[in-house]
Design brief:
The chain has six helices and eleven strands. With 253 residues, the chain is of the alpha/beta class. It has a domain of 114 residues. It has a seven-stranded mixed sheet with strand order 5-6-7-8-11-10-9. A four-stranded mixed sheet has the order 1-2-4-3, covered by helices on one side. The two termini are 17 Å apart.
Length: 253
């Protein structure tokens, strides 16, 4: 049986350096995030990269993740910096990324070990969340293992609660509905046995409506296996009430 070590991390505003070349930061975006960059320097960026890479390198018993999903990165360049700083000589990471329409320019992306997986760039999709203003897209990528098995990755960064949990809930409900629609489409194309992993920062708990009623995220394996709807088996239910710090970050089917 194939084993895979997958992880997800919201790296929290991993912006490019303040004076980044124009081709890495369009003028329009520069104007929008000027307040975010007021105290941001190359030294601070490098320190943040070092701290992130130190933790990532210790994942999977110091072997690093096979696949890592991230959100709140500004561009591909900062993700390349992160990979370069990983102390994992046996890994050869590739990047799956696209620029999102988000107002603050923060994106969702994956890194993956190219020695374990092949990325099919013809099966990379960006699913927009249709709401009042631009937000992060849901990204979908297909990897094939060296044994020939496919894994479909679906990366999410749903709208935040910054305007209030209930005031902002409709936006996460829209995201949940969008996710569920595309899970159903993936199954229609690849079959009910398709290996689909949904991960991300959902800005909600496993029991919130956006996940249970709209993304169809459940705590029962049998419902996933036997149900006719595109249910997601939520791996985070078992962490609720545990006496350690954790974030509810991954759904899987």
């Amino acid at each position: 049986m194939e084993k895979h070590f997958l992880a997800w991390w919201n790296v929290e505003n991993l912006f490019d350096e303040k004076g980044a070349p124009i081709e890495r930061r369009p003028e329009e975006l520069k104007r929008k995030i000027i307040a975010d960059l007021s105290d941001w320097t190359a030294d601070i960026l490098n320190k943040k990269i070092q701290n992130l890479s130190w933790v990532i390198s210790q994942m999977n018993s110091n072997k690093g993740p096979d696949i890592l999903g991230v959100c709140e990165i500004e561009n591909k360049y900062v993700l390349e910096l992160l990979i370069q700083n990983l102390t994992l000589p046996e890994r050869n990471y590739g990047i799956i990324h696209s620029d999102s329409p988000d107002n603050r320019g923060i994106d969702v992306a994956f890194i993956y070990d190219k020695q374990k997986y092949k990325f099919n760039d013809k099966e990379f999709f960006e699913h927009p969340i249709v709401k009042r203003y631009a937000t992060r897209e849901i990204i979908q990528a297909t990897l094939t293992t060296m044994q020939g098995n496919e894994i479909v990755l679906v990366g999410n960064h749903w709208p935040s609660r910054s305007s209030g949990q209930y005031e902002s809930e409709p936006f996460r409900i829209i995201a949940g509905e969008t996710l569920s629609y595309f899970i159903e489409r993936i199954q229609a194309i690849k079959g009910d046995d398709a290996a689909i992993v949904v991960m991300g920062d959902f800005n909600d708990e496993p029991f919130n409506r956006s996940l249970t009623d709209y993304a169809l995220s459940v705590r029962s394996r049998n419902k996933v296996v036997l149900g006719r709807s595109p249910y997601l088996y939520n791996l985070m239910w078992q962490l609720i009430g545990k006496e350690f710090q954790a974030t509810y970050m991954m759904d899987s089917i």
